[in-house]
Amino acid sequence: MTTHTTPAPGTTATGPRRGPTAAVLLAETRLFLREPGSLFWILAFPSVLLVILGFVPAFKEPQEGLGDRRVIDLYVPISVLLAMIMSGLQAMPPVLTAYRERGILRRMSTTPVRPSAILTAQITLHGAAALGSALLVVLVGRIAYGVELPGHLPGYLLALLLAVTVVLAMGATICALSRTTKAATAVGSVAYLAMMFTAGVWVPVQVMPDTLRRIVQATPFGSASQALDQAASGHWPSWAYLGVVALWTVVLGSAAARLFRWQ
């Protein structure tokens, strides 16, 4: 005799029932994990760069002009920002623009799953990847080169969250302004190179000439770099630096919300 069982409330015959947003997030997570290139550049490359820089003997010697700190100490916050720049400006814009270009977002608007679910999932995934990479960079710096852990943890976390928010807002703005995937990739690459410079990847902000440093500090990643460095040194980040990053977040987030089109 065959018996039939009724699934418990909130479940299906194959497992727990998921809401549309959770289902989209799960699907996007699987797709994201199948992209080894993105995983390497976001999660591994910033730590790899830090390890390579550590091979330069002079970078591991205290510098009087840096307050008896080492160059490698400065490059931990910089590598943290590099992970965010990779995630928000190189990885996310082409994905979202491709979804719109191929009509996926338009077709989703006729289903119970809203297009905003994909946007939410992509922001969540790339934000989480950037934060995971930041944690890895801090650990590599500590284990490989004895870099001190952030001396003011609450200030460091606040600066970190603001930096993640502003880079995702910038990436969303690039998606809003780009009609095609090629355009998103091109604009993202230009923004990526500019933000790498202002974050101090080539020349740490602390050792830039005064005039250039003042200009760079008016950019989101110039201020984020300074805020993270201050928190790493044990001080509460300057409200001026935090305010610049927050202001850029509001401006870019508002622009993305007004300009973004689902088709």
From TrEMBL:
<dbReference type="InterPro" id="IPR052902">
    <property type="entry name" value="ABC-2_transporter"/>
</dbReference>
<dbReference type="InterPro" id="IPR047817">
    <property type="entry name" value="ABC2_TM_bact-type"/>
</dbReference>
<feature type="transmembrane region" description="Helical">
    <location>
        <begin position="74"/>
        <end position="96"/>
    </location>
</feature>
<keyword id="KW-0813">Transport</keyword>
<keyword id="KW-1003">Cell membrane</keyword>
<keyword id="KW-1133">Transmembrane helix</keyword>
<feature type="transmembrane region" description="Helical">
    <location>
        <begin position="39"/>
        <end position="59"/>
    </location>
</feature>
<dbReference type="GO" id="GO:0140359">
    <property type="term" value="F:ABC-type transporter activity"/>
</dbReference>
<feature type="transmembrane region" description="Helical">
    <location>
        <begin position="117"/>
        <end position="144"/>
    </location>
</feature>
<dbReference type="InterPro" id="IPR000412">
    <property type="entry name" value="ABC_2_transport"/>
</dbReference>
<keyword id="KW-0812">Transmembrane</keyword>
<keyword id="KW-0472">Membrane</keyword>
<dbReference type="InterPro" id="IPR013525">
    <property type="entry name" value="ABC2_TM"/>
</dbReference>
<feature type="transmembrane region" description="Helical">
    <location>
        <begin position="156"/>
        <end position="177"/>
    </location>
</feature>
<keyword id="KW-0046">Antibiotic resistance</keyword>
<feature type="domain" description="ABC transmembrane type-2">
    <location>
        <begin position="37"/>
        <end position="263"/>
    </location>
</feature>
<feature type="transmembrane region" description="Helical">
    <location>
        <begin position="239"/>
        <end position="260"/>
    </location>
</feature>
<dbReference type="GO" id="GO:0046677">
    <property type="term" value="P:response to antibiotic"/>
</dbReference>
<dbReference type="GO" id="GO:0043190">
    <property type="term" value="C:ATP-binding cassette (ABC) transporter complex"/>
</dbReference>
<feature type="transmembrane region" description="Helical">
    <location>
        <begin position="184"/>
        <end position="203"/>
    </location>
</feature>
<dbReference type="Pfam" id="PF01061">
    <property type="entry name" value="ABC2_membrane"/>
</dbReference>
<protein>
    <recommendedName>
        <fullName>Transport permease protein</fullName>
    </recommendedName>
</protein>
<comment type="similarity">
    <text>Belongs to the ABC-2 integral membrane protein family.</text>
</comment>
